[in-house]
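Bug: token stream looks shifted between consecutive jobs. Job 1:
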Amino acid sequence: MLLTSMSFASMNIPECKPDDGEQDIDKNSYEQWKRLLEASMNLVGVTEESMKFNVFKIKAGRKLLEIFEGTISSPSMPGKAQSPYSNAIRRLDGYFGSRDYVLLQRQKLRSTFQKPDESDMCYVKHVIAVAKLCEYGEEQLLENVADVLLHHALNIQARKAGRKISRKGGSLADLMIKIRACEAEQLNEEIFAKNHRQDKQASIAAVGRSHPFQGRSSHDQRPRLIGPPSRVTTKRRGNDVRNSGS
């Protein structure tokens, strides 16, 4: 028991969490975590069902435990009393493989919008990842990914790429190549615009230094004579008043 406790303490298994940017744990996240959990327990020699179930409850994390608690056991599953760990895994496998889960992912796919600060490549990868949870065939998978791009991609070139793939056929790899080309083209345009903006600003600054009077009115450009102020004298002749400058 001492060896098992020390081995358990040494297991560095993170809790099961959603992927970055996601709110919920999906099937891929769960499967990856489950493989890591079972490999770690096999490595340290944890084989007894109750001990494995204890490890599961400690390492699963709040979100996965909430999903687990929302499932129910069926007679076809291992018994909860004799095989609590195997029962828990069968219940979670059933949840992530259910028809309701697949329909939920399809609904999620249709409403997958691109964020303003999300690159086209990251967005397309995200859409493909969600589509793969929907249990589509290969042809349906591509059609649905292209349809989401047509409706929700912010870059018109990405939408055109989705439309072209949808009309002429291809593969997800072909789509990724087109999206990568769109990003490269957009980056080149941004660099071009930035460089020419800097060149224009430098030219304007150079012209300003060469012609210091440029931008002033013709009246302002005349040299100003600096001298003593005029004095005004008043001469009276009869009823007339005359002003004269010295």
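Job 2, same session, no restart:
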Amino acid sequence: MRRAQSALEYLFILAAVLILVMVTIRVVFTSVQALNSSVTEYIDTLKNKILETL
């Protein structure tokens, strides 16, 4: 009976770790998307300023 309980505890810990990994990956991807959007906007602004000065 102890082996079954240990296996069940192991599966719960594994599920918790996988949930934490998924949350971390989602946060990283959201941050990368926000950064990409900011960089793209900044590049467009610089491009427009350069074109205005020509």
